[in-house]
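In this notation, each integer encodes one residue's backbone shape. One such record reads:

___
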Amino acid sequence: MKTSSAEPLDGPPRRISSVTRIIGEKYELGAALGEGGAGIVYQARHTWTDRAVAVKLLHPEVAADGDAVERFLREAKAMGRLRHENVVEVLDMGQEEDGSLFLVMDLLSGFSLGELKLPLSEQEALAIAIPLADGIAAAHAEGVIHRDLKPDNVMLVRDRGRRVPKLIDFGIAQTENSDSPMWQSKVLGTACYMSPEQVVGNPLTPATDVWSFGICLYELLGGTVPVEEETAQATIEAIAHGPPPNCKALPVARELSAVLQTMFRKDAKRPTIAEIATALREYAETLEGGLAMNATTISTDSTPLMVELEDGSASSMSAPAGPRKLWIAAVLALVVGAAAIMLARTQSPPDPTPVVAAEPSETAAAPVAEEVPEPPEPVANEAAAEAATEPEEPEPAEAQEAAPVRTKRRTRMRRAPGRTGSLSVDDF
């Protein structure tokens, strides 16, 4: 089901007994679009401007919790500062006389990643993952940790002919400077996408989103999540005390597998999401045909991300040259080319000795943009059969046991068992 559809969910809405209702004195609620752990999202209309919007009403039990209301107001203010192409925009918020809390957001037309047919090719997966990482980095820059990254919380929408991923549902997000120990220690989320520190209730940092983003990318490439047991409790036990996901089984090149493996460090000393985005962009530039990336990177951090390949060698994934460097490189290329032509006209041509091109090294770092070399040959998928990296030994079980998980209610757009959707990236 497309989350932007006007068709109502099965059965009457939980919060509203009638078809329409005016809240905030100007938003007319219509059909329910979806339900999450924190509330229900409705299609709505701004009665003054006639603009179509989405309104999220918190569940009654959430709105009745004083701590939850305080968190909601704080996180809503943080989200209101977010302005990024790959994050849903919060337009307004308010509270009714009966205590009902609501958020007003952009109404997105598209479908969630949870509805896609999986697995995707490397090009398809990276075209989604890289701009999504940019959106997460924008949230982290504002001190917002999403805490519930999963395919169902990413919408694919069309914008002027482009496919644009949008991060949605900040219902259990927290700010880094949250001063509520109770809030930081609550175990909330969707079990199979949660980080080791999240499932045991430890204080969270942006590194938890890096882990969850890695699980999402793993699923896009492999068709399933790496860890999912019969029950949520068994899943979090496996995440807390088992080995980290091993990416060697994925049908991808070793360079991509190695970058993915860095997101699954159980000690939470993972690269930042901005560093991950840089590394993925650099790898994407080596793919045949490249990628038509349509998101702007918010980070200019040029610190290289070092990854270890299965042969023990190290590869540096540094930030690609910016537009200014590419412009200078283009001018230099034109000048050198013109000089070569003039020199060739004044000298006799040398003997036509054949030139043999050297075979590209499999472990060579990505080419520097200023040199404008020919792209290397794609790494054969057979390399994926080798170990990307040796998985880290699981940490010894601490005295603290994995806390009982309070998983979010499954949304209506959840995929059927087997994690196979009904839509293709070419369906819209």
Notes: The first strand starts at residue 21 and ends at 23. The chain has ten helices and 15 strands. The two ends are 14 Å apart (CA to CA).
